Amino acid sequence: MTDIKNEMDSDLDQNYSLNSNADPKNMQELTIYIITRIDDMGNRIDDLEKSIADLMNQAGVEGPEK
Asked: Measured by CB atoms within 10 angstroms of the end CB, which terminus of the chain is less buried, N or C?
């Protein structure tokens, strides 16, 4: 599974970048593109949640109870 992910990441790095206008040419490229975009968004959300928690801690506000 890790080999497939690494291959997908490699293909994506070669074919797509934020400044690239390259369009996916087949279903595999489209799938790779979509999965990578979802992973990137997930990472951004995680970073945002961590930043908010840090700011709340600095302000002395307790987080929501779970």
From this structure: C
Tens digits of per-residue pLDDT, 45-56?
999 999 999 999
- Taking alpha carbons only, the member of 12, 2, 14 closest to residue 40 is 12
Distance CA 10, CA 34 (A): 15
User: What integer pLDDT is reported at residue 61 of this predicted model?
Assistant: 83
* 18 has pLDDT over 90: no
CA separation for the pair 25, 33 (Å, rounded) = 11
**pTM for the structure as a whole:** 0.56
Give 5-65 as a DSSP string.
HHHHHHHHHHH--TT--PPP-SHHHHHHHHHHHHHHHHHHHHHHHHHHHHHHHHHTPPPPP
